[in-house]
Design a protein that fits this description.
By secondary structure, this protein is an all-alpha fold. The chain has a domain of 262 residues. 80% of the residues lie in helices and 1% in strands. The chain is built from 20 helices and 2 strands. A two-stranded antiparallel ribbon has the order 1-2.
Length: 522
């Protein structure tokens, strides 16, 4: 509504005439007309979808494209007939969100894809608005600041006053809302201040300022640059003030509470898998179950890690980076001394690369990321031949002698890692050090296995997928038992089930891709 009112103000500016009664009528007509156009577009869209269903031509891609075109169609049609395109797009979106949802496989797939697609579009559009701001500001900043028509001190005072008014209006509105409209809800002044400084973004202001005309009465609209300059400076100033003030208003760095019920569910699943591992007759089946247990251990650790503060997460990343550095240095030294063959070196390098990719997927700080990157770059400069050899494909089969060499190097690197971790007990939290030590001890058991290749490649075997799906079945059963026993709420149980569904879907998609990957490797 604010953007629509601004459009009428622009019309009054460009035409040079204004009538309050006429403007009010036009605003009402434009708003109602835009709303009707939005509902009309949604009605037509539903008719089209029903026709597609009748001819049995349902397709997720087609439905998604129609949904994406919906706001554009509503906006363009409304503007063509002279009503508010903005209101039409908003009403179309609201009507689309209120549609009746059926529980079917097709609707579930469409909802998942639609949700991820729209979240990506929203993020992209928000980024584009500020990108356009930078482009426009680069063109108007110098002319406005260096112009003799505007005093710089007057511009600065105007920006400061507008910024102060924005924060004051937000503060008074929030105060009125919580003290009068929400009288039963006790809110402290600190919380009101947090909402005051934490809610200013300026996306709508930027979108509104971009619709200002470039020409007025066939002459350049010089004030457009001034308005854009003031809007951009106010937005930047509000963002800077928020970044500076919010740390003092917040309680400080805090960790999220650990979901102990989820941890207990994962522990119960691990115990059931361990009991089944003892009853498994085949060696390959035991390896597969052991790999599934390891994945559940990683999920348990990830759940715990997500509850840590940023500084504690940073410590974990530093320890992981140290371990990878020891691994790579030990392997390079062994290769230079002739203690490992080229095939063994390449095999071990791929194992290290997987660990490096896993570390890169985590949220690294800017300093840690560049420190990790520079460390790898320096190693490439010092040993370029090793790097080029590591990038080549493995053409020869891995022999038992190569496996024995890799196992010896891994055990030797483990000794260095244990020694380094023990020296860091006074630097990092002892629980973190103990976790990495236990994790290394578990991996040593896998490396010491007589059939070492199978322990590494078991995740490529169909039996692993079978055991993974069995683990998800046990997890669902455990969730149901916890919900029936009222140990967890229905909301929590549904959230846990949703996570299991995502993991199961991903595991099945990987199982479908593996035959194709093996075919291309041949």
């Amino acid at each position: 509504s604010g953007v629509t009112a601004l459009q009428f103000a622009i019309v009054a500016l460009t035409t040079g005439s204004f009538s309050a009664a006429n403007a009010g009528f036009q605003l009402l007509f434009s708003s109602i007309g835009g709303g009707l156009v939005g509902y009309l577009i949604v009605w037509l869209k539903r008719r089209i979808l029903r026709f597609i269903e009748k001819i049995s031509a349902q397709d997720v891609t087609v439905y998604l494209l129609i949904e994406l075109l919906l706001p554009f169609a509503a906006y363009l049609l409304a503007e063509m007939i002279g009503v508010s395109g903005i209101i039409a797009a908003v009403v179309a979106g609201v009507a689309q969100a209120q549609r009746k949802r059926r529980i079917s496989l097709f609707d579930a797939e469409l909802a998942n894809i639609s949700e991820s697609t729209w979240s990506t579009i929203v993020f992209t559009l928000n980024a584009l608005v500020f990108l356009f701001l930078g482009i426009e500001l680069s063109q108007v900043f110098s002319p406005i600041w260096e112009s003799n028509n505007y005093a710089n001190w007057h511009l600065v005072i105007t920006i400061l006053v507008i910024t102060a008014v924005i924060f004051l209006v937000r503060f008074l509105f929030l105060l009125f809302y919580y003290w009068f409209l929400q009288s039963k809800k006790q809110v402290s002044m600190n919380q009101v201040a947090l909402l005051t400084f934490g809610g200013v973004k300026g996306t709508v202001s930027l979108a509104a300022i971009f619709i200002l005309p470039v020409m007025v009465h066939d002459a350049p609209f010089h004030e457009r640059g001034l308005l854009l300059f003031l809007t951009a400076c106010v937005i930047l100033l509000t963002l800077i003030i928020s970044v500076m003030v919010l740390p003092y208003l917040a309680d400080g760095e805090a960790a999220e509470s650990v979901d102990f019920n989820h941890l207990l569910i994962l522990e119960d699943v691990i115990e059931q898998l361990e009991a089944e591992e003892k009853q498994e007759l085949s060696d390959k089946g035991r390896l597969a179950i052991d790999a599934v247990i390891n994945s559940y251990e990683n999920r348990r650790w990830e759940l715990y890690r997500n509850s840590l503060t940023d500084s504690e997460k940073q410590e974990i990343q530093e320890i992981q980076g140290l371990i990878l550095s020891i691994e790579q240095d030990g392997l390079d030294e062994a290769y230079r001394n002739g203690k490992v063959s080229l095939n063994g070196y390449r095999f071990y390098s791929r194992f290290i690369s997987q660990q490096q990719h896993s570390l890169a997927k985590q949220i690294l700080s800017f300093f840690s990321f560049w420190l990790f990157f520079i460390q790898r770059f320096i190693r490439i400069l010092i040993h370029p031949r090793l790097f080029l050899q590591r990038q080549q494909q493995l053409k020869a089969a891995l022999k038992q002698r190569d496996i024995s060499e890799v196992q010896k190097i891994y055990l030797k690197n483990s000794e260095y890692i244990f020694h380094s971790l023990s020296n860091l007990e006074d630097v990092y939290d002892s629980s973190l050090i103990n976790f990495f030590i236990r994790q290394r001890e578990m991996s040593i058991k896998r490396f010491e296995h007589s059939n070492f290749i199978e322990t590494i490649m078991i995740e490529q075997d169909p039996i692993f997928v079978k055991k993974v799906l069995w683990g998800y079945y046990l997890e669902r059963k455990t969730i149901d038992e916890y919900e029936v026993a009222e140990k967890i709420s229905t909301i929590s149980a549904n959230e846990y089930r949703r996570n299991v569904n995502l993991l199961e879907s991903y595991a099945m998609s990987r199982a479908e891709e593996q035959p194709k990957q093996r075919m291309f490797r041949r």
